[in-house]
Predict the 3D structure of the following.
Amino acid sequence: TEDILHRQDKLAAVGQLAAGVAHEIRNPLTSIKGYAEFLSMDETAKDRQEYFDIILEEIERVNSIVEEFMLLSKPTVSVLEKKPLLPIMDNVVSILDYQLRKNKIQLHRSYENPNFFVECDENKLKQVFLNFIKNAVEAMPNGGFIEIIVKKENDSISIVIKDSGIGMSKEQLKKLGEPFFTTKKDGNGLGLMVSFKIIENLNGKVYIESELGKGTSFHITLPAVD
Ligand code: ADP
Ligand code: MG
């Protein structure tokens, strides 16, 4: 089993981040420009519809990058409130219900106590759980199991999201949280970066265990509130 501790200094690499953003946005912009120019020059092109579709897809790509970064830029103004944790988790699970069924994934929840409270911005914490569980789903193209365990550990709440998916190599594990690191065809590689940042803003921690071919667990701890 390979363990890594998520290092907060990954987010300090602002220059690298900016370069990455510029690069990721420039590619779709270049193709949008090219196809738009082509369409304006040749009004009768027979592949018109195909070019319009590419333009729309590329715009959607830029849009998803911008949306993730907007989430990142907001934490400082977000208002933290005392909230029950489990309804937040259950809401995320219900949002993903269709996807879980479609992918033949069984999800098991084990909650030690129904009354855990955390200080959080509810929508951001939902975003975090959604990102982690979606990644688990995407790691199991042929079905499998997800286990969500929530319990108290000293003054913290421990949340484990465990999947029986494809797992990760040591090299992959090291790159988690780096902007634009993705191994997926349609991935943007921003979900974990944003999620780690949100957890950090709640004074929480993330720890990841993974084994190729066996599965992955994300261990999240958040300060417990009485
Ligand atoms: P994306 O999902 O768009 O690729 P993320 O930041 O959410 O971006 O994840 C980055 C990468 O981390 C994924 O592409 C995948 O390689 C790896 N990863 C994350 N979660 C898991 C998981 N549960 N199992 C296997 N690989 C994972
Ligand atoms: Mg993801």
